[in-house]
């Protein structure tokens, strides 16, 4: 049994500066974490993304000044932490890599997804190097290793949104991280990044460090997974949208997974899958206020309220496809989904009538104009943008009489564009114009959570 392994993940705000790093290191020490997964320092991934966008048009001088911002931020943390020269040398190597990579991209005026992933990986690689020193200063009892997660986190080659290969990861974790299990060693490592079978660096998608931590927890059969962020756990809705949120102390895997999938940024959508497979309880807490209770995500919480929380997924587009020939015909939906499949676009929700079908997709999908063109071959396509998907998440939702009318009474005069109800016992969701989101959430929160 591999009881006792604690995997802790610290997000960008918990890595923001030397003070935040010291606070996070104290938590990792107190929690006896053996695998500590970190994000890039706050804002660094955004700057790297900005760089990847400017390389194709900007001058080298402009690129250089953006690179310098990243270097200065990291050097200032290094100096405040008074890291040893080995650490500054390692950072210097990464700064060189950053400069060379961006120079190459800028010369070619090309930012391929593969090059972008190598570029983005530097955020986590630099922060983990700094954080391992920070933890080292606190724990002179144990040797802290800054471990390159790419030795273990094998993915496919879908750059920008790579999928983990769990079988390989388990094997590689057994090879490289055995000391965690048997010698009590502590590893600081990177979230978000991985490596494909050809040795190229990949990333799991924005916010993917939560997922990395869950993947490692699963591969090592961890006892628990801790996600340390800037809020004291999961709240009944996004505190930035509604000021009256309440903390949730315990929530089930399924409900938390629905929350994450339907837009609660506090967890990356796929985080809970490996945790569920391994039945690993997940704690979400604030690295700024670690004494606060936080949230436990478990298999069987005692309470299963009808409505536990609400989430919002922004930037949704509603595509309505109408074709009178659909009436009593077979194979129409099959052909519609074939188009989405060909374009590798994922559909979030769907409703159908006799002669039309409505589907929601993320706005970014519309960059793919060929999708609409191909759909138009199947019927008349109507596109509505600037929508948000509002979800109520809880238990037994699809079998509770009167719930839908309660929801619409609470919403009052707010215009609802599409409803998805019945497919999930944990979710009721509908589309509204994005300007109506705070009002819709406010009214529903007052009615169902109080
Ligand atoms: P990290 O950098 O630590 O991964 P994120 O910014 O990705 O942190 O996630 C934390 C943020 O998630 C919070 O600051 C909060 O604004 C947002 N959030 C959205 N929905 C919720 C919710 N239901 N409960 C708590 N936080 C939420
Ligand atoms: N640094 C990455 C991002 O900002 C991954 C993460 O923080 O989870 O998206
Ligand atoms: Mg996050």
CATH class of the largest domain reads Alpha Beta
- Quickly count the domains: 2
The proportion of residues in beta strands is 15-25%
Give the end-to-end Cα distance, rounded to a whole number of Å: 44 Å
Any idea what the radius of gyration is? 23 Å
CATH topology title of the largest domain: Carbamate kinase
For the biggest sheet, the summary is:
8 strands, mixed
* Count of DSSP strands: 16
The residue-averaged pLDDT reads: 94
Shape: globular
Series of H and E elements: EHEHHHHEHHEEEHEEHHEEEHEEHEHEEH
Widest β-sheet, arrangement of strands: 3-4-2-1-7-9-10-8
So how many helices? 14
Describe the structure.
The protein is an alpha/beta fold. It folds into two domains: 6-230, Acetylglutamate kinase-like (Carbamate kinase, 3-Layer(aba) Sandwich); 308-448, VC0802-like (2-Layer Sandwich). The chain is built from 14 helices and 16 strands. The chain has helices at 18-30, 44-54, 60-81, 85-108, 113-138, 166-176, 178-182, 209-220, 253-261, 272-277, 332-342, 369-376, 403-411, 437-448; strands at 6-10, 35-38, 144-147, 186-190, 193-195, 201-203, 224-229, 250-252, 282-286, 295-298, 307-322, 349-352, 356-362, 380-394, 418-420, 427-433. The strands form three sheets. An eight-stranded mixed sheet has the order 3-4-2-1-7-9-10-8, sandwiched between helices. Helix 3 runs antiparallel to helix 4 (85-108). The radius of gyration is 23 Å and the shape is globular. The two termini are 44 Å apart. 45% of the residues are buried. The mean pLDDT is 94. The structure holds adenosine-5'-diphosphate (ADP), aspartic acid and magnesium ion.
